[in-house]
Amino acid sequence: MKSRIFTLLSLLMAVVLAGCAVKDPTNPRFVVAEGRGIKITRAQLDAEVNKALTNFNLSRDKVPPPQLASLEVNILNQMINRQVALAEARKSPMTNAATLAKEQLERMKKNFPNEQAFQEQLAKAKTTEAEMLKEIEQKMEVDNLMRARVEPNLKAPTDEEVQKFYNENPKLWQRNETVRAQHVLVKVDPGADAATKAAKKKAAEDALARVNKGEPFEKVAQEVSDDPGTKGRGGELPPFSKGQMTPKFEETAFSTPPGKISKVIETPFGYHFIKVKAKEAAKTLKLDEVKNEIAAHLRRLKQGEASRLLLEDLRKDSQVKILLPPPPAPAPVTATTPPVQAPAATPTPAQPAKK
Question: In the structure, what pLDDT confidence band is assigned to residue 23 with cuts at 50, 70 and 90?
């Protein structure tokens, strides 16, 4: 009798809970996606979206609603993929994941001057050390799954595939004329008066005189230059082509013969002199020069497609359902409604700063 009463109460409770399911998509408890062993709430999704916006120095009120909705869908799919992959990975646990994660976190900490700086970066990224450690461990588990399930079935790109990619992308193999150079910068503030500018120019000319008298360029650059990015390397700049530096700097670098040192020049940054180490003429790279690079690229593409198909299968097996309302359709553009322009792309770290 007691067991029948308990069963009846359990059924009644289930009905009550089902009737109380959150219907408002903006409610933190609203379930935006679910499946076998998977449940993602609006609060969890919002937390991940906020982290992504923080990484791009954006706030929700600065992102147009259609773009924000699209971002939410993309991040939700990433969260689903991570959960289904993690569940699959833990069917054959990676025994040393926790240890390796701790070791990786300790290596990351060494990139910061002290513990306080590391903690400040965590706060800025809206995360904690425990959360970061968990993320690192989970990523290792998922990566291990992908290696085990994807790598054995990958076929190396054939010579025909490499040749085809080379032939179809001729612009990728064109290289403009480049210069390898060193420089010394004596920085001048934009609002400096004439006397200050004259003193700075003299300092640059004095440094140039030291080099012309035989002192190593590297030594003078380390002692005099105000360019923090190159000072420690003796003024060494990454190789650059036309269009990457300020006009006067570019003109001087490309007109100075290899092995020679320019006179002191002025740019918006201050006074420089440049030593041109080498020049490389414009050219088109031959297939033999880039075939390994192409093969690696094609392999990554195959890895990506194989990983996508694996995640697609795992999502089907987990019967994942996305309950987040679809993004609103964009408003029609009329004569009185100007189209919203996407923000300019953020420069990547690979783009050198102009001198």
Answer: confident
Query: Does residue 194 belong to any structural domain of this protein?
Result: yes
**Cα gap 256→279, rounded to integer Å:** 10
User: What is the pLDDT confidence band of residue 25, given thresholds at 50, 70 and 90?
Assistant: confident
pLDDT surpassing 70 at residue 333: no
Tokens read off for 325: 């309302």
* Burial group, residue 186, by CB count within 10 angstroms (0-12, 13-18, 19+): buried
Residue 341 pLDDT greater than 80, yes or no: no
Angstrom CA distances, 229 to 178, 222, 237, 249, 312, stand at 20, 11, 8, 16, 45
Per the structure, the count of domains in the chain is 1
Residue 13 lies in a domain: no
User: Residue 17 pLDDT more than 60?
Assistant: no
CB 218 within 8 A of CB 279: no
Expressed as residue numbers, the domain containing 258 is 177-281
Q: Over 80: is that where the pLDDT of 205 sits?
A: yes
**In sequence order, what are the residues at sequence separation of 6 or more whose Cβ sits closer than 8 angstroms to the Cβ of residue 112?**
118, 121
Q: What is the pTM of this model?
A: 0.65
From 15-19, 34-38, 87-91, 170-174, the region with the lowest mean pLDDT: 15-19
CB contact set of 292 (below 8 Å; sequence gap of 6+): none
Q: How far apart are the first and last CA of the chain?
A: 86
Q: Assess contact for 141 and 134: CB atoms under 8 A.
A: no
State the DSSP H helix or E strand holding residue 195, giving kind and residue range, or none if neither: helix 194-212
Structural contact between residues 237 and 181, judged by C-beta atoms closer than 8 angstroms: yes
Per-residue pLDDT for 349 more than 50? no
**Cβ contact 284:173 at 8 Å:** yes
Q: How far apart are CA 352 and CA 180, in angstroms?
A: 13
The Cα 256–Cα 233 span in angstroms is 21
Rounded (10°) angle between helices 97-109 and 129-150:
120
Name the nearest CA neighbour of 93 among 140, 58, 136. Answer: 140
36-40, 205-209, 270-274: least confident range: 36-40
Instruction: Identify the CATH number of the domain in which residue 219 sits.
Output: 3.10.50.40
